[in-house]
Amino acid sequence: MSATPIANCAECPHRRDLLTQGRCTPGDVCVRAMSGRQIERFFRVNPSLADTYAGDAFWERRAIAARYLSQRQLLSLIHDPDEVVRRVLAYRLPVEALDPLIGDPDREVRVMVADRLPPERLERLAADPDYLVRQYVARRLPVGRLFRMIRDPDRQVRCTVAGRLPLESLGLLRNDPDAEVRITVAGRIRCEEANGLLRDPDWRVRLRLAERLPIGQLGTLLEDADPDVRAAAQARAAAGEQEVRE
C-alpha cells in the first residue's frame, strides 16, 4: 500500500490559522498535498477558500476548487487548459453561460453541454463530430427539428431519431441501411405505410411486423421463409379466427 501523501506545513499559508483552528489536518484535510481526496476534504471544510485556488498551477486543485467556486469565479475558468476543470464548469455554469463550451475540444464537456442546454438551443450540436454528443442531441432536440438527423452517419443516433420522429415522417427511414433502425421503424410506423417493409431482408424487421400488423395485412408473412416470422404471423391469424368464431 502506498504511503499517504503529507505536505510540508511550514510552506503552507494556512499553518497559522486553519491548522491551529483544526480546519485542516496534515495527511487528511490538506490543500497542499498532491492528493485529490485530501484536497476535496479541505474544500468541503473550507468552501469559502475555493476562490483563492481558482488560478492554482496544479490542475487537480483547480478542478476540485471549481466544485465550490462562486459563479463569478467559475466564468474566469471557461478557457482553462485542463479538460477536467472545464467538465466541472459544464456541470455547474448556469445554462445561459454554456455557449462558449459548445465547441470545446473535450467530448465529455460537450456531452454535458448537450445534456443541459435547453432543447431549443441544441441544434448547434447536431453536427458535432462525436456520435455520443449527437446521441444526446437526438434524445432532446424538439421533434420538429429532428429531420436534419435522419441521415446521421451513426446507427445509434438514427435509432434514437427513429424512436422519436412523428409517425407521419417515419417512412423517411424505412429504407435505412441498418437493420436496427428499420426494426425501430417497423415497431412504430403506421400500419397503412408498412407494406414496404414486408419483404425486408432482415427477418427481425419482418418479425416485428408479424407481431403488430392487423390480421388482414399479414399477407406474405404467413408464408415467410423464416420459421419464426411465419410462426408468429400464423399464430396471430389463428387467434384472429378463434376470436371471430367466439
Automatic annotation (TrEMBL):
InterPro entries: ARM-like, ARM-type_fold, LRR_variant, LRV_FeS. It comes from Candidatus Thiodictyon syntrophicum. This is (Fe-S) protein. It comes from the Bacteria. Residues 8-51 form the LRV FeS4 cluster domain. Gene3D superfamilies: Leucine-rich Repeat Variant (1.25.10.10). Transmembrane segments: none annotated.
